[in-house]
Write a structure and sequence with these properties.
Mean pLDDT: 75
Radius of gyration: 25 Å
Strand order of the largest sheet: 1-2-8-6-7-4-3-9
Strand content: 25-35%
Helix content: 40-55%
Number of helices: 6
Distance between the termini: 51 Å
Largest sheet: 8 strands, antiparallel, barrel
Structural class: alpha+beta
Order of helices and strands: HHHHEEHEEEEEEHE
Number of strands: 9
Length: about 190
Amino acid sequence: MKKLVACLIFTAILASLTACGGEAARDAEPIKDSVVAENSGVSPVTEGNLTESEETRSTDTDENNAEITTEDNVMKITAGDTTFTATLAENSSVEALKELLAEGPLTINMSDYAGMEKVGPIGTDLPRNDEQISTGAGDIILYQGNSLVIYYDTNSWNFTRIGKIEGVTGEELLEVFGEGDVTVTFSLA
């Protein structure tokens, strides 16, 4: 049934393209292959089948999306002489935090809590998007809407995910943040 629907859709597309000219109909051939592949589970499109313009268009789009994502969803976290880069989550809490950071860097005095995290007040309330999550080294969460927490160990609770410092261990974070209080600066990249 799916193949029949796909063929009918292809036929309608092909007919409308044919009415626009022979060249458009010839360009529609990859659409047919994609529709058939989608319904058969077999992909007829291989790297060699793409024209140079299709390869370029695909690459440019991917690179542009990566740039947007990277620039818009990155926060720097500095303690002493060390700066970490965190990838931000996508929620209203992060958007509010980015608006706050757009006014300038945010410096927070953070304290050790329970041998698993550094926590400090933001100085304002942000919207909460609490959900049951388990944390690990490098996770950054919003606690009670008014504090940022950087985890160097595991925990499970209802938190709002803010982001994550990728590729760092709990030991590396402890080495930078120390065992007691620490001053940490958060800024947009």
